[in-house]
């Protein structure tokens, strides 16, 4: 290389010179950076230079990520919402169950106290009778458990009905509200005997054939009289809630509500059959003492 | 095709700059951790390419500057890439007249060797400073780079090639 070279050939310092220059510079940088940490400002300046590039490169990925997270969040939230909704339903159902269980527990305790005083069997109601015209219940005890026709079903507060049909595993209970079901009762207050009739599912009970001037008041409690030999005496049956004394009618219309929750519980007691009641008198003179048999 | 057999259009500086920006961007891409070893160092590749084909424009100085940028981008010791790229660029320049007439597949081997030298340089530098050996996958990128050298050269040259009709 001579001094008279044309400009075209002038390339500045030779590559080797540059190489030494820059490699020395690099090594200085390495040492300066690694050992003395004095190149922070340089790094900062260069990173400012580099930042747009970094942003440019990472932005699409971030965008994709954001979009996908947005979309997935949407789907996720929807799913989560649905799940939470379900969970809430389940929770409320559980809460209701808890309440029901508490109530049931209380009732069972009551039944238990009754059972202690009277020999009886605890049964669970399986379902309501399917016949819409009669008020019947199907319970889970039957012939296998020595249930017999005519046994009385009670709950903690009163008479529910009477076993009318027995299958091996189940039995059918006719509620006292069933139409024309009769229970011999007496008024607790004054021991006035009468018979209470069912009028149909969901309807009040009725006392028929009581003269308008008979001594009965709203609020009177009716208990079984025990006269028919089926219902043991002293079980609460119903409470009088309305008396219509109509002058055009010989009899008062007396409506009563059953004391027992006849369409409320899941458990009820079936009282054991009465210990052999005294045989029916065969004398005609004693016939008056016989009231109606069980009201079937 | 080696450059010398053809008449090529001049390369605009902006194109060179663009390729460097592109290579930096590719290097800055958020590579997967498992793939990071296999990602070829595109900046080094382009430095070799341009020092080979445009030795009057791109040389040791550019290599040094790009190396600095790479150091900052990678968060390495400042000067590590700069040194490696400087060495690579110098070696390329020293043999430029010879290498420029090689067919692409031979150039690919040269590129592989150069990049290996650069990586070995960086590796020894880091290990001198107490870093652990990162595993052989560290060198996988060089091989990938060698594989993509011929197509890459073709693509970049196609920008410079004149249409054949004009040539006649």
Automatic annotation (TrEMBL), chain B:
Segments crossing the lipid bilayer: 7-26, 32-52, 104-123, 135-152
Among its keywords, does the record have Membrane? Answer: yes
Q: How does it sit in the membrane?
A: Multi-pass membrane protein
Cellular compartment(s): Cell membrane
Q: Which GO terms describe its biological process?
A: regulation of cell shape
Keyword terms, alphabetized: Cell membrane, Cell shape, Membrane, Transmembrane, Transmembrane helix
* Keyword Lipid metabolism belongs to the record: no
Q: Which GO terms describe its cellular component?
A: plasma membrane
NCBIfam families the UniProt entry points to:
shape_MreD
Recorded family membership? Belongs to the MreD family.
Q: Read off the PANTHER family from this record.
A: ROD SHAPE-DETERMINING PROTEIN MRED
Protein name (database record)? Rod shape-determining protein MreD
Q: Which gene encodes it?
A: mreD
């Amino acid at each position: 290389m001579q001094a008279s070279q044309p400009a075209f050939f002038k390339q500045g310092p030779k590559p080797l010179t540059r190489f030494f220059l820059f490699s020395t510079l690099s090594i200085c940088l390495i040492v300066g950076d690694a050992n003395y940490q004095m190149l922070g400002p340089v790094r900062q300046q260069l990173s400012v230079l580099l930042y747009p590039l970094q942003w440019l490169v990472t932005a699409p990925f971030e965008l994709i990520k954001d979009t996908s997270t947005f979309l997935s969040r949407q789907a996720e939230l929807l799913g989560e919402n649905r799940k939470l909704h379900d969970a809430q339903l389940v929770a409320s159902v559980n809460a209701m169950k808890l309440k029901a269980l508490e109530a049931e527990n209380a009732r069972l305790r009551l039944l238990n106290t009754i059972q202690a005083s009277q020999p009886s069997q605890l049964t669970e109601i399986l379902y309501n009778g399917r016949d819409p015209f009669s008020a019947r219940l199907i319970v889970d005890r039957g012939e296998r458990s020595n249930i017999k026709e005519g046994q009385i079903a009670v709950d903690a507060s009163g008479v529910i009905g009477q076993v009318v049909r027995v299958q091996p595993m189940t039995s059918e209970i006719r509620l006292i509200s069933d139409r024309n079901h009769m229970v011999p009762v007496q008024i607790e207050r004054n021991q006035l005997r009468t018979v209470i009739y069912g009028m149909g599912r969901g309807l009040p009970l009725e006392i028929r054939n009581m003269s308008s001037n008979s001594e009965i008041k709203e609020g009177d409690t009716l208990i079984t009289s025990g006269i028919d030999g089926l219902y043991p005496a002293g079980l609460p049956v119903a409470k009088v809630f309305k008396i219509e004394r109509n002058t055009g009618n010989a009899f008062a219309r007396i409506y009563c509500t059953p004391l027992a929750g006849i369409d409320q519980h899941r458990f009820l007691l079936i009282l054991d059959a009465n210990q052999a009641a005294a045989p029916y008198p065969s004398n005609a003179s004693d016939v008056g003492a016989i009231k109606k048999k069980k009201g079937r | 095709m080696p450059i010398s057999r053809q008449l090529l259009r001049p390369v605009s500086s902006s194109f060179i700059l663009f390729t460097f920006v592109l290579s930096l961007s590719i290097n800055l891409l958020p590579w997967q951790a498992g793939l990071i070893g296999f990602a070829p160092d595109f900046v080094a590749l382009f430095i070799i390419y341009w020092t080979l084909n445009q030795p009057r424009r791109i040389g040791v100085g550019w290599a040094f500057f790009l190396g600095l940028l790479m150091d900052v981008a990678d968060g390495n010791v400042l000067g590590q890439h700069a040194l490696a790229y400087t060495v690579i660029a110098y070696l390329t320049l020293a043999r430029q007249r010879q290498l420029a007439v090689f067919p692409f597949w031979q150039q690919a081997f040269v590129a592989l060797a150069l990049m290996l030298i650069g990586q070995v340089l960086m590796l020894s530098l880091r290990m001198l400073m107490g870093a652990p050996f990162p595993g052989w996958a560290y060198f996988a990128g060089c091989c990938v780079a060698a594989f993509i050298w011929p197509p890459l050269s073709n693509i970049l040259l196609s920008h410079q090639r004149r249409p054949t009709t004009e040539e006649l």
